[in-house]
Write the structure tokens for this entry.
Amino acid sequence: MSVTLASAESTPFEIAQAETPADTHETPADAHAAQPAGEVHTETGVAHGEEAGSGVFPPFDQTTFASQLLWLAITFGLFYLLMSKVVIPRIGGILETRHDRIAQDLDEASRLKAEADAAIASYEQDLASARTKGNAIASAAREDAKAKADAERAKIEASLQDKIAGAETRIAEIKAKALADVGTIAEETTAALVEQLVGSKATKAEIASAVKSVAGK
Amino acid sequence: MSNDPTHQFLVNKIVPIEIGGIDFSFTNASLFMVATVAVATGFLYFTTGQRGLVPSRMQSVSEMSYEFIASMLREGAGSHGMKFFPFVFSLFMFVLTANLLGMMPYFFTVTSQIIVTFALALLVIGTVVVYGFYKHGFGFLKLFVPSGVPGALLPLVVSIEVISFLSRPISLSIRLFANMLAGHITLKVFAGFVTSLSALGAVGVAGAILPLFMTVALTGLEFLVSFLQAYVFAVLTCMYLNDAVHPGGH
């Protein structure tokens, strides 16, 4: 049922295709018959006669071939032109720009890395030289301090020696003086003793010689 | 609309044009060819308008299709084949867009017309033959003489090669045409079951569930087929172009 309905519905279209509006009032069969007559000039005119009655399967309808080929040529030709002249250079350009940019960035990165490596190397070198320099300074300072300390000690020792020597001479002086004083004291004591015991005064010279003779023993 | 599954392939005149007695009318087929060109070009043109160094989603779709075809061609026909890149890219995008547009309800499928696919296939083979003879002269005929074949077998092998070469435009065009045609007819038939069954009342509506699922599943399948057939068309084009660039083996 649907098939008959379909062919009935497709009929108005095929009438329109025949480009003969006068045929619209005729029966479907007449309309089909009118079609080849209307387009008998087409290159496939002979085939039309066979198709017309059978309700040809649309994709094999040769009456449409010429128009489809022409419009395919126009549209595909235009499409090819648009693709090859506009779109492909455009997308290709975008991709190339990106590719270049990435390559450039990679170059930049490797350049920066080399720079960083050089900086690290120079830093290491500086560090090493600074360390040796520091060591040298430290040892020089140590030497210096040691020499200074030695000199100081020597100086202090010398001054101490001086002081010791001074003290010793002073002690000797005091000792000699004390010893000298011992003679005088003995003489006075002797004079006093003689006076008490003897009752007369002895001369100073006698007492001194007596003391000296005792002291000499 | 008719329930006739082939109704969708009818070519209707929109602007009748007749030149020298030949019908060159602007039809719905022509309209959808124009639409295909407009949609494909518009998409590729406007998505790449930003020329972003970091592509947007749509821009990367355009770039992916570019790189997809470029790598396909480079693998298929080598770096010498890259001069055909605009051709293969145009073919792929045209067929793909036409197939996908055809998936829209009430839209005409340009590639379901044998004459269109045959013309595209002839264009491919014509390019192969013309470029092959232009570049290699009669050396192009080495294509039909595989190296290392014993002399006794040569006539047989050469005739097989010639036949296979001649059948290429036919297989190339019919593969695409038949896939699109059959898919759309199947889809229409199952969708027709849904409407005609649901017209039968409650039982019919329940019975219509199965064909409805089939229709949904087939729609998904047809989208896959749309892409796949465009891909196959482009891959085979690359292979055939390889014969033009390197006849007589690699």
